[in-house]
Design a protein that fits this description.
Low-confidence stretches: none
CATH topology of one domain: Alpha-Beta Plaits
Mean pLDDT: 82
CATH superfamily of one domain: Regulator of K+ conductance, C-terminal domain
Largest sheet: 5 strands, antiparallel
Shape: elongated
Strand content: 5-15%
CATH architecture of one domain: 2-Layer Sandwich
């Protein structure tokens, strides 16, 4: 290995050390490593690791652009409330961590068999984030299993993952070459079928999901604590009215999802001048019911996302501006405010500020009583529904100490929920059943989300996780540096020479192991391209059927669980899950081993090394 290779390995070691230290973000570590490699190429004559155009070309990769577009599709689902519909229909309300993981992983694996894995993970991440919060399950217990399920499901068909598509094309070209005619005739080799790889992929997926369900409790660290409500959390009393025509009318409190919002409980129901205290979960909701909730502000936002529930105060309806231009804002009354000592009604709060007070928090407790009768005091925290410009208009006002917008409190566009689901369905069809490029498919559907007003352009821009895109783009550039310097090729050829005298099974294990190692260093596609000629050459020289080697090559290049850099979906969940670099090694290495055992055992069993005469 030349100087270029050693410099590249040294830089990669620094990147890994930075990631393992958890002192710098993954985007800073990856982009920093890529910058060093490009700098070395430019500073020193004779060094040709990766030039700037090649290094930054990863940011223009179709996969990176596709992921960005799918974030916008997910934003459309979020803004219309469709995510809640999907979560309720598919994920439900499991009673244990294992059940939650199974209900998430099974549909993800099935979808990944027919769709690009990064697309599936990008669509599911906001769903899982919201679901885990409501179920009080740490998101770090779900994000890595989400990525692993998508990877495993992608190994079940020839189109499930990009590395399978790459190897399929390479194998078809190999079959067509006249130099391989003898091997092709000897083993009756034909072009691979759609479900060819399923004999290994499906058992691997079953084993992988079983491993996660059994071992995640001990091997998967909880990096993000589950949502907890403490006595110090700011609580409000909020009255919500059930509008006539609401879809929750006739449902029980349990079925309507009003008992499982974190940090919130239903105190009582006011119905036709009667008060129903200590509400039973089997109580059925009626039109015009006044539901009185007590809870934290984050769960008040969840209430607003339920179709047919609106704040009970009449003042909300009088706020100027359309419902699409409103949000929730918290503000603390200052000791210099002219509002002090006056009731909300007498100070004409709504007329003066174009804002309706929904609830008041004072001195660690909620303030009871009708909103209009509450006499304001210094330090009162007001929860208001108001226009989007309120924060900027009163940020420096002497009336309030602190003014802040409540995150995620925009009006939900429920009437467009089915439209956003139709766009999601179109994306699935375009990705799975049409020859249209997956990047173009994602861009078309992202454009439809904005064009149909399922989400605004501002929300679309804010929804893109730029950290994830920077990490993936940088990883692609570093992978190309490893390819240019021949590091992976050198390692693969050395291991092959050692294992050749040990027989076909040993060679098969060696090919799987080498491909898996290379896949941790470069992308899954890079590992597939680098190892394909080696795997085929090993089979031909040993005079054995090359198909088992092809199967193991597909499995090993796709199933990369040991490092976050090994696969795009691992990188996507790395930051949001709060994981450490070593979490992947601890939890992923046994899974890599288990899938490897399945692949090297079943491949020659379904496709024997030697044909029976």
């Amino acid at each position: 290995m030349n100087l270029d290779g050693w410099l590249t390995l040294g830089t990669l070691a620094l990147v890994v050390a930075g990631l393992m230290s958890n002192r710098i973000g993954p985007d800073v570590a990856m982009l920093g490593g890529l910058t060093v490699l490009m700098l070395l190429t430019g500073l020193f004559p004779g060094i040709n690791i990766v030039d700037p155009p090649t290094g930054v070309s990863g940011f223009a990769e179709r996969a990176v652009i596709m992921i960005g577009a799918i974030y916008i599709v997910a934003a459309g689902l979020q803004e219309t409330g469709a995510i809640e519909m999907i979560a309720a229909a598919v994920l439900g309300r499991p009673k244990s961590l294992a059940t939650a993981q199974l209900r998430m992983m099974a549909p993800v694996a099935v979808m990944s068999a027919f769709m690009n894995t990064t697309a599936v993970v990008a669509m599911y991440m906001p769903i899982v984030a919201d679901w885990s919060r409501k179920m009080k399950i740490s998101s770090s217990r779900l994000y890595m299993p989400l990525s692993f399920a998508a990877i495993l499901g992608g190994t079940c068909t020839l189109i499930g993952t990009s590395s399978n598509v790459t190897i399929d094309g390479l194998y078809r070209s190999w079959l067509a070459h006249e130099d391989n005619e003898t091997t092709r005739n000897a083993f009756g080799l034909v072009e691979p079928a759609f479900w060819w790889i399923a004999v290994v992929g499906v058992p691997s997926t079953i084993v992988g999901i079983g491993y996660v369900l059994l071992c995640s409790r001990w091997l998967l660290a909880e990096r993000r604590p589950a949502t907890q409500v403490t006595l110090e959390d700011r609580k409000y009393k909020v009255e919500m009215l059930v509008e006539p025509g609401s879809p929750i009318i006739g449902k029980t409190i349990e079925d309507a999802g009003l008992r499982h919002l974190p940090g919130l409980y239903l105190a009582d129901i006011e119905r036709e001048n009667d008060i129903l205290p200590a509400v039973s979960p089997d109580e059925r909701i009626q039109a015009n019911d006044l539901l009185v909730f007590v809870g934290i502000v984050e769960s008040v936002v969840d209430l607003r996302r339920i179709r047919g529930l609106v704040p009970a105060t009449e003042q909300v309806k009088k706020v100027e501006g359309g419902r699409r231009q409103r949000t929730l804002v918290e503000a603390v009354v200052s000791r210099h405010s002219q509002l002090i000592g006056r009731s909300v009604r007498n100070c004409q709060f709504r007329t003066r500020f174009n804002a309706a007070i929904i609830a008041v928090h004072r001195g660690g407790v909620m303030v009871d009583g009708k909103i209009g009768d509450i006499v304001l005091q210094p330090g009162d925290t007001l929860l208001m529904e108001t226009h989007l410009g309120f924060v900027n208009a009163y940020r420096n006002s002497s009336q309030f100490y602190l003014v802040s917008q409540v995150e995620g409190a925009r009006e939900v566009r429920h009437e467009r929920a089915w439209l956003s689901l139709a766009i999601l369905g179109l994306l699935v069809v375009m990705l799975a059943l049409t020859p249209i490029d997956r990047m173009v498919s994602a861009l078309v559907c992202a454009g439809l989300m904005v064009g149909t007003r399922c989400c605004t352009g501002t929300v679309a821009r804010q929804s893109i996780n730029w950290q994830v895109l920077i990490v993936i783009g940088s990883a692609i550039g570093i992978g190309r540096a490893l390819d240019n310097t021949g590091i992976a090729q050198t390692v693969a050829e050395g291991l092959t020479r050692v294992c050749t005298p040990l027989g076909p099974h040993a060679l098969l294990v060696a090919v799987y192991f080498m491909t898996s190692v290379v896949a941790q260093l470069v992308s899954n596609n890079g590992a597939a391209v680098l190892m394909f000629p080696i795997a085929m050459a090993v089979a031909v020289e040993s005079k054995v059927n090359p198909v088992p080697f092809l199967m193991c090559l597909m499995s090993a290049s796709a199933c990369s669980f040991i490092t976050p850099m090994a696969y795009q979906t691992n990188l996507m969940v790395y930051g949001p899950g709060g994981y450490k670099f070593t979490d992947y090694s601890l939890f992923g290495a046994p899974l890599n081993l288990a899938v490897g055992i399945v692949a090297v055992t079943l491949s020659p069993w379904f496709f024997p090394f030697h044909l029976t005469p």
